[in-house]
Write a structure and sequence with these properties.
By secondary structure, this protein is mainly α. The chain is built from 10 helices and no strands. The relative contact order is 0.12.
């Protein structure tokens, strides 16, 4: 097997989803540009170029409001599954393993292996940070994308109001506006529904060959068992 083919095989999941992200983002930009110009024409205003649309707050807020909800989903899921359980779901740990688990189970400190990450064998703050680094990153990305949504949302909100000859509002005022919370909560509820549905549906339904599903023949109450 050539090096290129091995790279594609070893990174197929990331590459396919990464390519899908780029294509759908491009599609969103094309459709959003057309929709944005339709609104401008309806208001008897001059349409903008595609490049100009990519720099508008309308495009930025549409992108960031989806990003923040996705990162919120992963942040809550990563931290929630430390303590919360669902009998029969491969998305849950085994029923007796709620919590941070023992050092031996987590292969940290004196139980680290030769191929373990270096900070897994370290003690103190480095190990504590690394032990939570994935959740911390997801939380950070969520907060930054939510902040970006609030800033771009305020700009888009004010641009629309100015076109209608209404007074703009400050960023802090926008944080309490219905537009901000409507954008935010409609995304949050969909993410929470998706995660909850996956947790309970995976108790009774199967997908052969997927690590997100139990083996087809596993009992419904088998918990923390994943396929391969």
């Amino acid at each position: 097997m050539t090096r290129a083919r091995r790279f594609l095989r070893d990174n197929g999941l990331t590459l396919v989803f990464g390519a899908g992200f780029v294509l759908t983002l491009a599609g969103q930009a094309i459709a959003g540009h057309a929709d944005f110009n339709n609104h401008l024409i309806a208001e008897q205003l001059r349409p903008v170029s595609f490049g100009g649309y990519l720099l508008t707050s309308d495009f930025a807020v549409d992108v960031t409001e989806n990003w923040q909800s996705e990162y919120l989903q992963f942040f809550l899921y990563i931290f929630g599954t430390v303590w919360l359980l669902q009998r029969g779901s491969p998305e849950s740990k085994e029923l007796g393993k709620a919590g941070l688990e023992a050092d031996k189970d987590q292969k940290v400190g004196p139980y680290a292996k030769a191929d373990s990450p270096r900070w897994a064998a370290a003690g103190g703050a480095r190990q504590a940070w690394y032990s939570r680094s994935l959740g911390i990153l997801m939380c950070t990305l969520f907060l930054f994308s939510w902040l970006a949504q609030s800033v771009t949302g305020a700009a888009a909100y004010n641009e629309e109001h100015l076109r209608e000859l209404q007074a703009p509002i400050s960023w802090l005022q926008y944080l309490g506006a219905a537009d901000f919370w409507n954008r935010t909560l409609q995304n949050w509820q969909s993410e929470l529904l998706a995660v909850g549905s996956m947790a309970i549906f995976s108790v009774y339904l199967r997908q052969r060959g997927s690590p997100e599903s139990k083996p087809v023949g596993s009992a419904h109450d088998s918990t923390g068992v994943e396929g391969g």
